[in-house]
Amino acid sequence: MARIARSKSATGIYHVMIRGNNKQTIFHADEDYEKFFTLLTGKVLQKSMYNYAWCLMPNHVHLLIKEKEQPISDIFRDILSPFGYWYNLKYNRVGHVFQARFRSEPVQDRTYFLRVFRYIHRNPLEGNLCKKMEDYRWSSFAYYFRSGKYQPGDVILNLMSREELEQYHYEKDEDDSVFLDIDNDGIKKLTEAEIIAIVEHSGFVEHISAVKSLPREIRTKVLELMLHAGVSYRKISELTGVSMSVIRAVSKNLNEK
């Protein structure tokens, strides 16, 4: 099947979303976040793009960028390919790290630009990864409003004053459904971060991405642990890469016990 062409932005500005393959976790340790961010900032330093906002979540990334002379597809090829190679070497795995192509949508006007800017910074808050936006390390919110690095006269602060722009972030958007997003269903009792913590603190496996490769007996124990915690089949599969049929079989045996 032929790929659908990306919608071209007249402004050169895009909201980009990158997701882990099968919605699995991408970033397990600070080093993983730092490696991705280094590749990202490298493209900024090369003047291939301008990065207005960023947020690295455990299993996906949101960016608000402006392409310059290099097309957006080439920009992210140069980021995702070396990261995937490095990641597979580090975790002794094979296969795709990211799900299909990155997703993008054009940002054509000032109003939508500001809404996406806010939406990206609110992601960790909405995902229960922090209580305050400035507490989340892998987002540009603190860069703009706490670091003192972003100075009056720069691009974003031409749109609003620093005080107005920060206050704008606390006004939740009335219609989040218009933005690029991931399917966050399946977590009722626990957040994704809490599920990952349960698995990685269990003593069975160091990283949740390695569950699929565990010996059958140990893998079953980890899956039972997640099932006991009330995690849905779908979410277990997304986080571990284990097939739904295997998870259902483990669940059936668990119920029979």
Keywords:
four-stranded antiparallel beta sheet; globular; 42% helix; 257 residues; alpha+beta; Alpha-Beta Plaits; single chain
Account of the protein in words:
By secondary structure, the protein is of the alpha+beta class. The protein folds into two domains: 166 residues, Transposase IS200-like (Alpha-Beta Plaits, 2-Layer Sandwich), CATH 3.30.70.1290; 65 residues, no CATH class. It contains nine helices and four strands. It has a four-stranded antiparallel sheet with strand order 2-3-1-4. The longest helix is centred in the N-terminal third of the chain and has 19 residues. It is globular, with a radius of gyration of 20 Å.
What's the topology here?
Elements: E1 13-19, H1 30-45, E2 49-56, E3 60-67, H2 72-90, E4 103-106, H3 110-126, H4 141-145, H5 162-168, H6 192-200, H7 216-228, H8 233-240, H9 244-256
Helix pairs in contact: 1-2, 7-9
Tell me the strand order in the biggest sheet. 2-3-1-4
* Total number of helices: 9
Number of domains: 2
Under the CATH scheme, which architecture of the largest domain would be assigned? Answer: 2-Layer Sandwich
User: Oligomerization state of this entry?
Assistant: single chain
- Determine the strand fraction and express it as a percent band: 5-15%
Largest sheet: 4 strands, antiparallel
Can you count the beta strands? 4
CATH superfamily of the largest domain: Transposase IS200-like
> How would the global form be characterised?
globular
Ends distance: 46 Å
Can you tell me the CATH class of the largest domain? Alpha Beta
Q: How are helices and strands ordered from N to C?
A: EHEEHEHHHHHHH
